Amino acid sequence: MSIALAVGRVVVDSTEEDFARFVRARWHQLVRTAYLLTGDRGRAEDLVQTTLVKVHRRWSHIASVESPYAYTRAALANESASWWRRRRVAETLGEVPVHADRASGDAYAAYDTRDEIAQAVLALPPRMRAVVVLRYFDDLSEADTAAALGMSVGSVKSQASRGLERLRSVLRDTSGAPEGSRS
Amino acid sequence: MSIESELREALAARADELFPGHEDAYARVTGAVRTSQRRRRAAAAAAVATVAAVAVAVPLTAHVSGPDRTTTPATRTSSLPAPADPRWASMSTWPVRGGLANDAGLVKAVGELGTGRVVFIDDVASKRVAIVVDAAQNQIAVIDGEAGAPAARLGVTTRGEAAPTVEGNVLTLTVDGSRTVILTSPDVRSAEVSDRPEIHVDGTVSRQWQTVRLANGMAQVTVGSNVLRVRVSGSDQSAMFGVGQAPGTEDLMPTVCGDCRGEAFQSAMVSFARDSISLQLGVPREEIQTDAVYAGPVDPAVAEAAGLPEANRAGAETLLFVGHSTLPGGQVLQTGQLTVHGKDGTGQSMGLGDGVPIDARTAFDRPFVLAGNDGPAGKSGNGVRVQVFAHTGTSVQLVSTSPTIWPGSAVLPLRAATARVDLSGVTLPDFTKHYEVVVRDATGGELGRYPVELPNTGDPFAETP
Q: Does residue A97 carry a pLDDT above 50?
């Protein structure tokens, strides 16, 4: 709700104060999600800023919804997942990067595996990546992920499943484990 | 451990790399909000003038200036080598220029970020921008972030293959659609700049050019559209880059919907075409009428030949969109986009002309031709695969200017407004250069004759040759 209180010459807009509190409280949380979607801190902050500018325009409405944070996070994921920007030449999406060779028993294997998984997530198509991040980082249910991204629950299931299959493939390649050795 | 658990751990670990910043996030956001509001107001005030500007070229408000210092105090470019210095021969050896050229630490960090030589760095409009030339990879990277941002908060925004004409020595970088940096070698004293094209109803384009003086081979000009063109005597323009969006266009985000099918595909592509043209020309989206001329399936073999190898993959769906956008002055621009949707959610998309002016009087009757080499990618094949989409007539025929050299096709009946043919012994360049489509009625009479490719598909807002 937008309430402007005129006190002498000082105008206090409680809506703006709400927005300020919201931004300060949620900024870092949003940047963390954006970082997983973009892979770069600067881009993540820019993405969050762009999203919040748009949220600000509709704040009087958004402030009244059940969870402004959920709304903003959904807007963030959608902004990020606006994929297939115009290209003059064909653009192939969804390639998984070549993993680094590593000797077995490497002490940094756990770290490297996590790093390769995170890298592989960045190589997913944007909408699939958004599904994976919302499901497995923000721990949204399939229904909430679907609502956030404007997709059907079935699409979320299939996108998540395909995303996981690609990540399994990365791990198989990394560990040299036989197919099907991971659940 | 299950893959889901590993994924959760990996994502959490990656996110934990970020430590909370010390800046006031609200101050940052409100700064951006104010900028956005200011631009939206300015854009609204300029809307009427903008519409007229498409039909009648507006005198350019270009001027030579020093670096934009509206956001960050900038130092002068460090002393530069004389124009005859061999380092100016190639942009890969250009010295660094721009208002932040003397900030050695920043230049070094940005060079590492872009893996190459920084040739320009400055705060321009609302952004800190740098151009980095990587001679080893023959690539040019553009790096940007907020004006005043430290290197840690800058990122590579574009990285393009440096053209073979890199020795041509002209680089342009448009920031926020409002300021363009022109960089060339200092022996060049002036450049010609055209802010907007004049698009005529018959589909031709003309431009007015204004001379801009260069200082040390460099200038910044104020622009009013994303279709500014720069030309320098004796040199081809080798690279054009842009970062940020023009004032008032922050809501425009032309995207090709990867999940859309059927009516949703058509609707999404209409929005894509309209937003893209609005963004480029600065015409308000509401004043552009975009109609789908074709939105439907394509022969995968043709799509593959045209440049989308995924088209022939099992289960893939290939869709073509052709749209006509009518500007307030009655000019018609054609947008074509080919997309392949894979079963696994991946895909490819390729532009087939983005807002190409066509003759408004025959726009609806003009067929759209999709063609590609039938040989391996990048090589001449034994012929071309062609699919023609036409709304009028009952048949089409491909004819060449020299039938003895480049044989024509048979008369091809239109089924569901499309016809398919292979032409053997014809290369794609010959096809696009020498062939026309003849549209015929039921009696075989000629309804119209059109070149298979528009002359300005590659650069819709260049002056038509």
A: no
